[in-house]
Amino acid sequence: MSICPVEKNKDYFIEINDIGNDGEGIGKIDEFTVFVKNVLPGEKVKVKIIKVKKHFAYGKALEILTPSKSRIEPLCQVAKRCGGCTLQHLKYSAQIDFKTKKVYDALTRIGKFNNPDVKKCIGMENPYNYRNKAQYPVGEYKDGLRIGFYVGHSHEIIDNNNCIIQHRANRKIIEIIRNFIQTENISAYNEETGNGLIRHVMTRIGFYTDEILVCIVINGKSLPKAKKLIENLGQIEGLKGIVLNINTKKTNVILGKKNIVIWGRDYVTDYIGDVKFNISIHSFYQVNPVQTKVLYETALNYAGLNGNENVLDLYCGIGTISLFLAQKAKMVIGVEIVPQAIEDAKKNAQINNIQNAEFICGASEEVVPEIYKKGFKADVIVVDPPRKGCDIEVINTILKMKPKKVVYVSCDPATLSRDLKILCEDSYTISKIQPVDQFCFSTHVETVVLMSRVEGK
Question: Cα 448 to chain center, whole Å?
Answer without folding.
Answer: 15
